[in-house]
Design brief:
single chain; mainly alpha; 4 helices
């Protein structure tokens, strides 16, 4: 196994760990901490998810470069999964996150925006991303005996 294989296999697992830790542990638990108000939790969440999204873009770029620079084993499933991850990131970063951010700013400013399912959509996208990352990591592990 060479350095490129380590990057191709390792990045999806690290990315998956970050998504699981932030989206499914930190995000819901922060609101249960003593003294955390909704505005404080929203402020923390906006910072944490902005940082996660920057890290995810870096993971996606590094992984894409490593896949393009690698050999042709299992190219089709890897490319399909990678394209699906990029598409999902685009939906989250360009579609969902800006609207969720506006909603959070409204709440922080004391306004009450109408009910929305955007947050649920983001959670579903995170769950799909976790499945895609696990599938990609599995395909890459199996392609490198």
């Amino acid at each position: 196994m060479n350095a490129g294989d380590v990057v191709r296999i390792g990045v999806p697992f690290v990315w998956l760990g970050a998504v699981l830790a932030i989206s499914f542990l930190e995000a819901p638990l922060k609101f249960r901490a003593p003294g955390i108000t909704v505005p404080l939790g929203l402020g923390i969440g906006r910072l944490v998810f902005r940082a996660l999204n920057v890290a995810e873009l870096a993971f996606a770029v590094i992984l894409t470069v490593a896949v393009v620079a690698g050999d042709a084993r299992s190219v089709t499933p890897v490319v399909v999964l990678l394209v699906a991850l990029w598409a999902l990131l685009a939906v989250q970063l360009l579609g969902l996150r800006p609207r969720l951010d506006r909603r959070a700013r409204d709440l922080l400013a004391g306004r009450t925006p109408p009910r929305s399912r955007l947050h649920l959509g983001y959670i579903v996208a995170e769950a799909v991303k976790a499945v895609l990352l696990l599938a990609l990591a599995t395909v890459l592990v199996l392609a490198n005996p």
